[in-house]
Amino acid sequence: MRLYLLALNPTDSVTEGFLPAAGRLSLDVTVLTDQPDAHRARYPDVEILECDVRDVRAVIRRISTHHRPDAVFTNSDHLQTQAALAAVYFGLPAKDWRAALRTKDKAEMRRRLAAAGVDTVWSAEITEPAALDAPYPCVVKPREGVASEDVVLVGYAEELVTCSKEILDRRPGAVLVVEEYLPGELYTLETLGDQDVRHVLGGFHTEVSPPPYFIEESLTFVPAHPEPVVAGVLEQLDALGVGFGACHTEFVVHAGRARLIEVNYRAIGDQCDLLLARLLGIPLFEHILRTHLGEPLPADLGARSDGAARVDYPCADRAGLLTDAPAATELTVDDVHLTYRPLRAVGERHALYRTNRDYLGVLRAVGTDQPAVDRVSAEFLAARRWEIQP
User: How many domains does the chain have?
Assistant: First the structure.
C-alpha cells in the first residue's frame, strides 16, 4: 500500500514518528515536498518527489502521474486542506476539507463558532496598520500563522498600529487578525478519531512567557480535564466539523468555561507527540496513519492511565552565537525517563525571534509521579548550561 505524505520543511514528527510508523505498517512511502534536498538529507532511503505542495492541483497531478495512492496524509498545519482535497479527489479517507480550512484560517474559525452559537469572540481582519476601536487589550496575529509567530498582546490603539506595521513589514501581503484577549489558564486537548469514534487522549497545561509574547516554555501532561471543560471543547470542535484523524486544540479555561485559542488539525508537535506515544504506551503514529488508510480505530486504545510527564524548552533570551550547550542525552533518574535533544547546534548564530524558533533544546520527561517528574526535570535543566555570545 502506498502512502503519499505532504510536507514542507522536515519535522521531528515525520522523521521520528510517522516515517518509522509507516515502516512498521509495511507502507510504501512517497514524500511530496517543495524542499526535497532538506528531506533527502534527513532520510535518504525514502522516495522524495519535488512538488508545489501548497497547490492542490500540483499535488493531484504529481500523484496521478506516479503510483496509485492508498492514503494521502500530512501533519503540516499549512497543508491540511490540500491533503484533504487530494484524498477526496482519489476517493480516499480524509478530513473534511472545509474543517481543515476553518481551523487554519483563524478569522473563519471565529466566524464559524459565532454562527453556530457556541462562542463569540470580537475579532477583525486588517491588511494595513490601523487604529481599531477594539476591546483592549487585544491580540494581533497572522490569520494563518503558526507557533505563536508574530502573536502579540497590545494595550491600546497606537500600539496596535505600531505592532501591526512591524508584522506586515516582515510579512508583506499577509492578513492579520485582531481579537479580544481571552483570559485564563492555557491548556490543550489531544484527540484522535476515525469516521465513527473520537478518542480523547488527555492534554497538557501550557506555561507561556510573560506578555506581550506567547512563547510556550513548558507543558505538563493532564490525564483528564474536567468533564464540563472537555464537553465544551468538543462542542466547539463539532461546530467546526473537526473529528477525523489527529487534532491538537489549544484553549483557555476562565471561570470554568473553555474557549478556543486555536485548532491545529494535526498531531501536537515540538516532540510532544513523541512523548505522548511513550507516555500512553500506544502506537499513536500507526493509529493516525491507519485512519487515513480507512481502518477503524479500536474501541479501546489500551492507553496507560498511570503516567506523568512534562516537556521543557530551554529558550534563548538574546540574539547571538551559541557557544556552549549540552549534547543529546537519554537517561533514567529516580524512575523518570529523560530524553534531551538539542534544537540548535553549537556555532550557530540566530536573531531573537520571540517564538519557538528561540528554542535551544527540548527535554521530555516521563514517569508515574508528577512531583518526581517535575523535580528531576528541574534538576536536569539546572545542571546544564547554554551560553550565547553577542
Answer: 4
Q: Is the domain of 40 the same as that of 89?
A: yes
Residue 114: inside a domain: no
For 347-365, what is each residue's pLDDT tens digit?
999 999 989 999 999 999 9
pLDDT of 195 above 90: no
User: 65 pLDDT exceeds 80?
Assistant: yes
Structure pTM? 0.96
Q: Residue 81's domain spans which residues? A: 2-94
Q: Is residue 312 within a helix (H) or strand (E), and if so which, with residue range?
A: strand 308-312
Q: What is the DSSP string of 136-193?
A: SSEEEEETT--TTTT-EEE-SHHHHHHHHHHHHHHSTT--EEEEE---SEEEEEEEEE
H, E, C per residue of 229-287:
HHHHHHHHHHHHCCCCEEEEEEEEEECCEEEEEEEECCCCCCCHHHHHHHHHCCCHHHH
**Rounded CA gap, 296 and 46, in Å?**
27
Q: Which of 245, 276, 304 is the last residue of a domain?
A: 304
Task: Indicate whether 223 belongs to any domain.
Answer: yes
Q: What is the CA radius of gyration of the chain?
A: 21
Output the nine-digit C-alpha cell for 388: 550565547
Per-residue model confidence (pLDDT) at position 203: 98
Asked if residue 258 and residue 192 are part of one domain, the reply reads yes
Distance CA 269, CA 246 (A): 11
Backbone phi, then psi, for 366, in 5-degree steps? -130, 130
Last residue of a domain, one of 281, 304, 327: 304
CATH assignment of the domain containing 37 = 3.40.50.20
Residue 99 lies in a domain: no
206 and 287 co-located in one domain: yes
Give the tens place of pLDDT for each residue, 215-240: 999 999 999 999 999 999 999 999 99
Distance CA 101, CA 3 (A): 22
Residues 6+ apart with CB under 8 A from 88: 94, 97
- Report if residue 376 sits inside a domain: yes
